Amino acid sequence: MPPTPEMSGHGAPIDELRERLRGAGSICVLTGAGMSAESGIATFRDALTGLWSRFDPAQLASEEGFRADPALVWGWYAARRDGVRRAAPNAGHVALGAFARRHPGRLTVVSQNVDDLHQRAGNAGTIRLHGDILEDRWLEACKRRPACDTLTATPGTPPRCAECGNFVRPGVVWFGEMLPAGALEAADAAAERCDVMLVVGTSGAVWPAAGLAGRARRGGAHVVIVNPQPSEIDDEAHTVLRGTAAQLLPALLDGL
């Protein structure tokens, strides 16, 4: 494979990509932790500082860890939820949302992030591969019919069902868990049908999300990576832009 081009994010390369995006019938955008980091949301591992630095990630992001110390894990996610609520969409989120409003049906956002910044910026249909940190669900499937609503849980750390004692947990994908039903299938379909894929702010180290760029390229899409640092899937790209989402997405999408 020939060397992957690297571009500064300004000038003729951006103009060429803008024309490609202008003519694309379907655009898929895969976003990772770097995009949310520009809004002040620390990546999972970067957030393991201070009080949390002595914990193994598996203690805070696995069913086993939750069962071993529910209060600890609930406290960790409560702190992260507060950070998400305080954060605001950055210029990259805003550019994607504005483009989607101007061109209904042309843009699909697939995100590895568990925050709601894409939704707040206007992409309500974002495909969430790793769940929703602001959503509650039961630790175990409710055996009652009709099923208990998590809103009826008795407050606590964590809340639990007054009827059966079932714990409430965050609606994120933990280590060892399957992705949400239908999310990966929808992401695969978006990657296969797109004419252009933008891969934004992801290291390319987390699978199966990292495989979407290759799937798009094999389907004939032009693949563009937007990241200030090298990623593990740069070789899947036709074009690599070294810059951040907030810098480059407005340059690529505004005015189209």
UniProtKB/TrEMBL annotation:
Its EC number is 2.3.1.286. NAD(+) binds at residues 112-115, 201-203, 227-229, 245. Residues 2-256 form the Deacetylase sirtuin-type domain. The keyword NAD applies. Substrate binds at residues 77, 80. Its main location: cytoplasm. The active site is at residue 130. Gene3D superfamilies: SIR2/SIRT2 'Small Domain, TPP-binding domain. This is NAD-dependent protein deacylase. NAD-dependent lysine deacetylase and desuccinylase that specifically removes acetyl and succinyl groups on target proteins. Modulates the activities of several proteins which are inactive in their acylated form. Keywords: Cytoplasm, NAD, Transferase. It is an enzyme of class 2 (transferase). Pfam families: SIR2. 2 residues (Tyr-77 and Arg-80) present in a large hydrophobic pocket are probably involved in substrate specificity. They are important for desuccinylation activity, but dispensable for deacetylation activity. PANTHER family: NAD-DEPENDENT PROTEIN DEACYLASE, NAD-DEPENDENT PROTEIN DEACYLASE SIRTUIN-5, MITOCHONDRIAL-RELATED. Belongs to the sirtuin family. Class III subfamily. InterPro entries: DHS-like_NAD/FAD-binding_dom, NAD-dep_sirtuin_deacylases, Sirtuin, Sirtuin_cat_small_dom_sf, Sirtuin_class_III, Ssirtuin_cat_dom. It catalyses: N(6)-succinyl-L-lysyl-[protein] + NAD(+) + H2O = 2''-O-succinyl-ADP-D-ribose + nicotinamide + L-lysyl-[protein]; N(6)-acetyl-L-lysyl-[protein] + NAD(+) + H2O = 2''-O-acetyl-ADP-D-ribose + nicotinamide + L-lysyl-[protein]. It is found in: Cytoplasm.
